[in-house]
Every structure is written in structure tokens, then in C-alpha cells.
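Technical annex B. To support the medicinal chemistry partners, we prepared a structural model of the target in complex with calcium ion, based solely on the information shown next.
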Amino acid sequence: IHSNAWCVHYRPELEAKYVRRLTITTELKRALASNQSELSMVYQPKIDLSTMKVCSMEALIRWNNETLGFVPPDEFITIAEQAGLIEQVTTWVMQRTIADLSYFRQKGYGFTVAMNLSTQDIQNKPLLDKLVSILTDAALSPDALELEITESDLVADASLAIENLNALTSRGFHFAIDDFGTGYSSLAYLKNLPVDTIKIDKSFILSLATDDNDKQIVHTVLGLATAFDLKVVAEGVEDEMSLNILKEWGCDIAQGYFISRPLAKDALEEWLENSPL
Ligand code: C2E
Ligand code: CA
Ligand code: CA
Ligand code: CA
């Protein structure tokens, strides 16, 4: 009776998705194994709103592939997790980011670097041990880094993740909750976790200057964060008015295109030399 099931269910758009996923998996494996620099890191400055000085950089991965062109990190990170490749990607990110941070420290810059970790990463004890050893080899202390994780990371397998977070926190690492506001956790819940910073998701910040709803949400989050003694970063600041609102409301740190786009190491160095910040 189901002899024509394939025909009934066949959808070309699903096949296209499947083929793209397969190509990404194959090409990413190859990129990780080869020395060609398909993968690179860019860094986006964050400024301390009380001093208007650069305080940190978020490290963001980029992938340019010959066949696929530019592949958005959101897309290939998700596929890397499903294909068992995320450990290799994160290891590469850690090595490159810490090497670049070390370079900037030697140049005399004091900013910290924020690295993104995925759900599987914070459950992977050997990977986290590797982070500690890369940092130690570079003669950098854990407070040179911030680790960004999302709320969902703490729901997936809460006990193991939280145990690993606690272990790293006691060694001096700091964690920030990324994309805050898009998940389910409340600030009260975060209070019990080894997290000292939240990053308000850019969806609430992009139209802050004009959207009354966003204003209300951001104002409320800032008030509660102060009560819970959490530092707040606003990401996705694209205009001066939003920056001023955030500053006025006591937001600690801002990141976004208005300050700078994410920049490759050389461009960042140039930006740092010429920036009035
Ligand atoms: P995210 O961690 O939330 O990173 C912030 C994203 O917002 C970045 O996108 C950044 O380029 C973008 N952004 C920054 N300022 C603005 C702005 O003013 N306006 C707008 N419209 N966008 C802005 P990107 O680089 O495409 O990264 C997307 C996501 O991919 C990241 O979201 C993160 O979840 C993931 N990702 C990127 N690099 C890494 C990495 O090295 N490791 C892991 N695990 N995930 C990464
Ligand atoms: Ca992030
Ligand atoms: Ca984010
Ligand atoms: Ca994100």
C-alpha cells in the first residue's frame, strides 16, 4: 500500500536542504583538516558606557569556502554540532583567538576577548581542560577571557553544564548569557548560576530608538539586572540614539555596528590606532 510513499513525501526543497547540509559537513571536515585559511576570526569591539572606552572584543568565526562561498556561522555551527565537528571547530577558535589576544596584549592593549561556546562545548570537560592549557601556554590569565553561552545551553543537560561552569568559575573564568530575552530563563534563575553578565539580544536593541515595546523591555531588564547585580551588555547597537538611551539607563557595555563591525586582526589593529575611543 505504501509503494508510492517516497513520491507522496518527496519535496525538492527538503532535498536541497539535505544536499547543502551534506556539502557543508564534507567541506567543513576538509577545511579543518587542511592548512588553507578558509576559516578566520573577526573581532567586534565593545565599549564601556561609563568611560566610552573599548573594554572587550567579541571573537566571531568566519568561513569562506570555494564552492559554498561565505557560509554564515549560525548555519555551519549548528551543522558542526550535529555532525560531531564542533569540538574541532571550537578548538580551532580557541587557539586562534588566544594567539591573537596574546598579540594584542604584547602590543599593550588591555581589552578582554569574549568567546562563544556551544551547548556541547560546555559539557565537554576535556575540551574545557584544553582551553585552560592553551591559555596557560600563552601566559594569559582566565580573566583575559569571557565565555558566552546561551540560555538553552543550561537547559539541555543542566547538571553537567553547571558543574563544568562552576569548575571554571572557581579557576577565575567569567561567563555571560548570550541572546538574553529569547529563551525562558529569568534573571532570578540566573542568580543561582555562575554567570555575572547578560547580553541583551540584538532583536530588542536594533530598533530601541523608535520602538516603545523594546524600550520598555530593555528598561525593565536593566532595572532587574541592577537588582540582581549582573553586568549588562547590549548587542546590536546600530545608531547613536540607541547608544545614548542605553548609557542614560545605566547599561554597562555596548556592542554594534554603530561602534564597529567585526574586524579581522589587521583591520582591528588599524581601527584601534585611529579610533578616538
Ligand atoms: P552571537 O554570538 O549572538 O553574535 C552576535 C552576532 O550579531 C554576530 O553575527 C555579529 O556580527 C552580529 N552583530 C553585531 N553587531 C550588530 C549590529 O549592530 N547589527 C546587526 N544586525 N548585527 C550585529 P555573526 O558573526 O553572523 O554570528 C552569528 C552567530 O554565530 C553568533 O551569534 C554565534 O551564535 C555564532 N558564532 C559566531 N562565531 C562563533 C564561534 O566562534 N563559536 C560558536 N560556537 N558560535 C559562533
Ligand atoms: Ca555571542
Ligand atoms: Ca547574541
Ligand atoms: Ca546567536
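Notes passed to the chemistry partners:
The pocket of calcium ion (ligand 2) is lined by residues 58, 116, 148, 178 (CB under 6 Å).
The longest helix spans residues 12-33.
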